[in-house]
Design a protein that fits this description.
By secondary structure, the protein is mainly α. It contains 26 helices and five strands. The longest helix has 38 residues, at 400-437.
């Protein structure tokens, strides 16, 4: 299959160089049949490319017929508005099938039409167009689908065999499809919850995602950019977890969602992390393993983007990596896959010289990065994991002693980072307790300390300057503020401090009798509660008004009054966390088994006599 694509690409390139248009006379007559001059072309290109005449004739005729078909389709679209779509079916002999349709049908109608015409189960397929999953509820035109678009069909069903128990099979497939869709929805929900959560929450009780640099230390990112980055990286990790299981059909939609969220991040941010480059590699790899590279028009562009991003992150000669990590052996696996995919792309485009160059570069890297199993076993006996062993051996060029030292040092660095984080959490807890002892709620203390970088004095002022935080209450007492019974003794105490009776009574109602908070707030605002804290004439409390106008960050992150919903959200978050690897360099730990097989396959194609 790959060799035929290569030869067709070579013939197409020769025709383009010779400015030959097969769909026009003298190569095609009025009846759209092949002209006699085609025989001369067969003789010419058969000799030039060293292909037997029958194969040359068949491929030229295929190119000619497709050109005519495309031209007819273009004319038909101009006149009738009926578009021609190229349908790429999953793992079949005749994979590219034309389909004619108007662009005003919905995605669901297109899916139904494809399923009916090609004997596929409608609920067992997903459709990708323009690197996006087709929205079943919108029209094709609304989704940017155009004439001659490439439509990739993903089949979620794993088994090809037909059994007699068709009804049970369909039920199982429907159940599987529902499970996949439910899982995608849970992933989306879990990532949105984690993306909204702030660092000021207690990670021991409420998990949140943090962004770290290549040494494992947290990095500061603006909130909006961080949300997009967390979503992008979360979808990417989910897709990578599925790729490890070779479930490419299910992985691809997650990777495309990750790509969409990465595009919401600033260029400056993308230039500082290698995640975006790795994602581009993973997307192209997925298309390749699904045998659908033809559907990815910009595969070459994605690989070039990955290469440029690696250079910016690592340095032209990996100098930044060497400065940070001391070596760049681990990252070489990314370049191996990059060169391999670039070589495959060149081969499929008929560029044999470039294909040979890149595939041989990948082959040399494979030889360099192959790990001796005995060395992995030796490190395992020292108490290190296989993953640690592989990564360290690649970083240390196979030297076992150096690898053991590297793992030990890295473990100590990570332990030191954990100790520092624990110390920060202890200090934060002490500061929170200090503010709570002054009458402020736990969440108000968390938010204030977060916004003042942990400065206790500034946090105190921050709470007073942001009255909505004063309404936060750790007490579960449901009594409304306007119904709270204020004692005369408390009013007298505040009046003794110089505040008016009206202000004293209102402040005590708002703070449910907390004299400390009432006096501090009145003093800070010149004896009168700020407008956002004052009770409305109708008697509704300011907390009710603020809650109706604006959700708190924790509420927008998915808090719920229903215990069942809360459990579901916890499950969704836990599913995300399960797919996030413990080792920060997990994405570099490729066994290279797939790469080895593909390198050998393509080397056998290009190692032929050149004429």
């Amino acid at each position: 299959m790959a060799q035929k694509k290569y030869l067709v690409a070579k013939l197409t390139s020769c025709l383009r160089e010779d400015k030959i248009q097969l769909w026009k006379p003298p190569y095609t007559n009025e009846k759209k049949e092949a002209g006699k001059e085609m025989k001369e072309l067969v003789q010419k290109y058969s000799s030039k490319l060293n292909i037997n005449k029958n194969d040359t004739e068949n491929m030229l005729e295929e190119i000619r017929c497709k050109a005519i078909e495309r031209g007819t389709g273009n004319e038909n679209f101009k006149v009738t508005g009926i578009a021609r779509l190229d349908i790429y079916l999953p793992r079949r002999k005749s994979r590219k099938i034309p389909l004619e349709t108007n662009l005003f049908i919905t995605g669901k109608e297109l899916r139904s039409q494809i399923a009916q015409e090609h004997a596929l189960k409608e609920n067992a397929i997903k459709i990708i167009i323009n690197k996006k999953q087709l929205d079943l509820g919108k029209t094709l035109e609304d989704q940017g689908v155009t004439h001659n678009a490439k439509v990739m069909v993903l089949q979620l069903e794993q088994s090809d065999e037909e059994t007699k128990r068709k009804v049970q099979e369909e039920e199982l497939q429907c159940k599987k499809e529902k499970e996949i869709n439910d899982k995608m929805q849970r992933t989306k929900k879990g990532l949105e919850i984690l993306a909204e959560r702030e660092e000021y929450l207690d990670p021991d009780s409420v998990p949140y995602l943090d962004i770290a640099n290549q040494t494992g230390r947290s990095i500061e990112i603006p909130p909006q950019a961080k949300k997009a980055l967390v979503l992008a990286m979360g979808y990417h990790e989910k897709g990578r977890a599925l790729m490890k299981k070779k479930e490419y059909e299910i992985a691809l939609p997650y990777l495309l969602d990750a790509d969409k969220h990465f595009c919401e991040c600033s260029t400056e941010l993308l230039n500082t992390v290698d995640n975006y480059a790795v994602l581009q590699l993973d997307i192209v790899w997925c298309y390749f393993r699904l045998e659908q590279l033809d559907c990815l028009d910009d595969a070459e562009k994605k690989l070039s983007t990955a290469h440029r991003c690696f250079q910016r992150c690592y340095g032209e000669n990996h100098e930044r990596l060497i400065d940070i990590k001391g070596s760049y052996g681990r990252e070489k696996v990314l370049f191996l896959r990059l060169y391999l995919l670039q070589g495959i792309g060149h081969y499929h485009s008929g560029r044999e010289k470039e294909a040979a160059e890149y595939i041989q570069k990948a082959s040399r890297l494979y030889e360099e990065l192959s790990i001796d199993p005995d060395k992995v076993d030796r490190l395992s006996l020292l108490g290190f994991s296989e993953q640690e062993a592989r990564l360290a051996l690649r970083a240390c060029h196979g030297n076992v002693e150096h690898a053991a030292n590297l793992i030990t040092n890295r473990r100590e660095e990570k332990a030191q980072i954990r100790r520092e984080e624990r110390a920060k959490r202890r200090q934060r807890r002490e500061d929170i307790n200090t503010l709570k002892s002054m009458g402020y709620s736990e969440r108000a203390a968390q938010v204030a300390l977060h916004n003042t970088q942990g400065n206790l004095d500034q946090a105190f002022k921050f709470i007073l300057d942001n009255p909505e935080l004063l309404l936060e209450d750790d007490d579960d007492d449901p009594v409304a503020m306007d119904q709270f019974q204020v004692s005369q003794e408390s009013i007298d105490q505040l009046m003794y401090m110089g505040f008016s009776r009206e202000s004293a009574e209102q402040a005590l109602k708002v703070f449910k009798g907390n004299i400390h908070l009432a006096s501090q707030t009145l003093a800070h605002y010149g004896g009168v509660l700020p407008a956002s804290l004052q009770l409305s004439p109708e008697g509704s409390s300011p907390s009710e008004e603020s809650a109706s106008s604006k959700d708190s960050p924790t509420e927008s992150a998915g808090s719920s009054s229903s215990p069942t919903d809360e459990d579901m959200e916890t499950d969704a978050v836990n599913e995300i966390l399960e797919d996030i690897p413990e080792h920060e360099e997990d994405y570099l730990d490729l066994t290279l088994e797939e790469e080895e097989q593909i390198i050998h396959e393509y080397l056998s194609y290009i190692q032929v006599p050149q004429h």
